[in-house]
Amino acid sequence: QVQLVESGGGLVQAGGSLRLSCVASGRTFSSYAMGWFRQAPGKERELVAAISRSGGNTYYPDSVVGRFIISRDNAKNTVYLQMDSLKPEYTAGYYCAVKITWYSDRTYFKKGEYDSWGQGTQVTVSS
Which of 47, 84, 114, 120 lies in disulfide reach of 97, CB 3.0 to 4.6 Å? Predict the structure, then answer.
């Protein structure tokens, strides 16, 4: 199991920005496709960004295009989520996840296909 640790959550006012980080264990981070998910109380965990193992391809649902940017630094075993123009309805726990991809640069995976998950970091957007 790959170990993942998120950080960077906190309280921010509407319209503000926040950058989340997720550090992964292991020596093969360059073989990990990564995803960011969010889950609000009483709601299903949903994908908000994904990036291929090379970093050359990304995916965003329509709801966050232009607001969220996912990136990675393979030398630091870290994936980032830059969040701009935040809205109160974005308040949720944010989780990173890893999908091991040995022989492809595939980007999009369904929630159930990811191999490991972090513990989450809370983001609260005030109005």
Answer: 114
Task: Please identify which residue in the block is written with the tokens 């393979």.
Answer: 74
Longest dimension (CA), the chain: 45
Please give the single-letter amino acid code of residue 10.
G
Q: Which amino acid is at 120?
A: G
In this structure, the dihedral spanned by the alpha carbons of residues 90, 42, 122 and 6, taken in order and rounded to 10 degrees, is -100
| DSSP run (H or E) holding 66 | none
Query: Taking a C-beta distance cutoff of 8 angstroms, is the pair 118, 5 a contact?
Result: yes
> Mean pLDDT in each 10-residue stretch from start to end of the chain (127 residues)?
96 98 94 97 96 97 94 97 96 98 94 98 97
Cα(124)–Cα(24) distance, integer angstroms: 24
Task: Tell me if residue 34 falls in helix, strand or coil.
Answer: strand
Sign, CA dihedral 16-5-72-114, equals: negative
Give Cβ neighbours of residue 91 (< 8 Å, ≥ 6 apart).
Answer: 40, 123, 124, 125
Q: Which amino acid is at 59?
A: Y
